[in-house]
């Protein structure tokens, strides 16, 4: 099966999702109240994944660092609202959490999609991890897609790199855009 992958530098697709706060939001567009002009979209597997829980909690601890360089955060999974509500008991997040990512939306994002191993794991197909940093022009500046929960950007290194990218003195372009 051939999969579509988003390319660095291309426009982030227009996708809307529902948040736990019952708001409909557009992924890749920073919230006005955040004061940020970039957004980090974190696609996670769902409530059934303890590594996702740990990653989201670590990300919450670094939210202020991201805010200081103008980057808003949103996380989204294919979980239902009920599944996300129960997952919140394990999460200490301070950024919007969205749910209901459809398989069509997963395909648009180019993330890997997995089947549940059993009904105890979850009751739906789910996205494997993806991390997208969308710049103020609405283009993908950073793309990271994994086919399993064990491979994700180390957050301190990622934030250090984003700080470098956002510093105008570095004039750092979007990487990985060469064609051949």
TrEMBL record:
Q: Per UniProt, what is one GO molecular function of this protein?
A: oxidoreductase activity
Q: Which domain of life is it from?
A: Bacteria
Segments forming domain Thioredoxin: 6-164
State the InterPro entries in the record: AhpC/TSA (IPR000866), Thioredoxin-like_sf (IPR036249), Thioredoxin_domain (IPR013766)
- Protein name per its UniProtKB record: Thiol-disulfide oxidoreductase
């Amino acid at each position: 099966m051939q999969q579509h992958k988003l390319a660095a530098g291309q426009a982030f697709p227009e996708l809307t999702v529902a948040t736990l706060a019952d708001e409909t939001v557009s992924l890749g567009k920073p919230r006005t109240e955040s004061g940020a002009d970039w957004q980090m979209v974190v696609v996670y597997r769902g409530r059934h994944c303890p590594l996702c829980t740990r990653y989201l909690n670590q990300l919450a601890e670094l939210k202020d660092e991201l805010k200081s360089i103008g980057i808003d955060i949103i996380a989204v999974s294919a979980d239902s609202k009920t599944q996300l509500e129960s997952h919140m008991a394990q999460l200490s997040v301070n950024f919007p959490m969205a749910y209901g990512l459809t398989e069509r939306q997963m395909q648009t994002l180019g993330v890997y999609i997995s089947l549940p191993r059993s009904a105890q794991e979850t009751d739906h197909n789910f996205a494997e991890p993806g991390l997208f940093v969308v710049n103020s022009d609405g283009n993908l500046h950073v793309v990271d897609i994994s086919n399993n929960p064990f491979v994700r950007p180390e957050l301190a290194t990622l934030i250090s790199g984003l700080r470098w990218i956002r510093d105008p003195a570095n004039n750092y372009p979007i990487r990985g855009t060469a064609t051949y």
